[in-house]
Amino acid sequence: MKYDVIGDIHGCYDEMIALIEKLGYSLASGFPVHPENRTLVFLGDLTDRGPKSLEVVEFVGRAVKEGAVRYVPGNHCNKLYRFFKGNPVKLQHGLETTAAEYRNLPKQKQKEIRDLFMRLYEEAPLYEILHNGELVVAHAGIKAEDIGKKPVGKIKQFVLYGDITGETLPDGRPVRRDWAAHYKGEPWVVYGHTPVKCPRMVHHTINIDTGCVFGNKLTAFRFPELTTESVPSSLPYDESRFRMEP
């Protein structure tokens, strides 16, 4: 099996569809099908900030249910899940846009979306090991020594939020260590979470969150080819959102 891993979508539904088609998938059946038997993998952070978060949820949720694609959650997915559960979460950092979309729906449609997403999240692995252990997909990354371990405690925190120090930047974002610079594992780790202007390949890791929702582009990593494909964003460019890792 060959894979195409798509980075953080954040509600950029139109760009997601454009990238899927650029990768050679047909959507004629309603689900992505590739003539060369490739499989799409979504890297988490489907929602928040962008204009069509719930359309992304519907597309990915139904495709996963059909067995047509794979998905691992990100930190924004975790927060939306807690919102749908009724837990106290702050409507900020993009969740307010998804919540507004949700509240504008008829009650029956709200229930459909909520049930679809909660099932998607609850049944998803926190990270995936694919291609006979040669490929690992984790939203914010994973240490080599933790691959294959149960994602609880610090491993779960790392997979969802990265190697955070506990400190925050002036704008409130967490300070993260550059774990990829020290990665010595053999499996390729594909991750996102921290926006970069171009895919960042270090050792056997690649960050493919190229900040589509911040006006840059949406990127996919093709495995085992080790190549990338991107489509441009339709949103305004925000230079302040891009910084060197960590």
UniProtKB/TrEMBL annotation:
Gene3D superfamilies: 3.60.21.10
Coiled coil: none
Pfam families recorded: Metallophos
CDD domains: MPP_Prp_like
Calcineurin-like phosphoesterase domain: residues covered: 1-196
Family matches, as SUPFAM superfamilies: Metallo-dependent phosphatases (SSF56300)
Organism domain of life: Bacteria
NCBIfam families named among the record's database cross-references: PRK13625.1 (NF010148)
Protein name per UniProt: Calcineurin-like phosphoesterase domain-containing protein
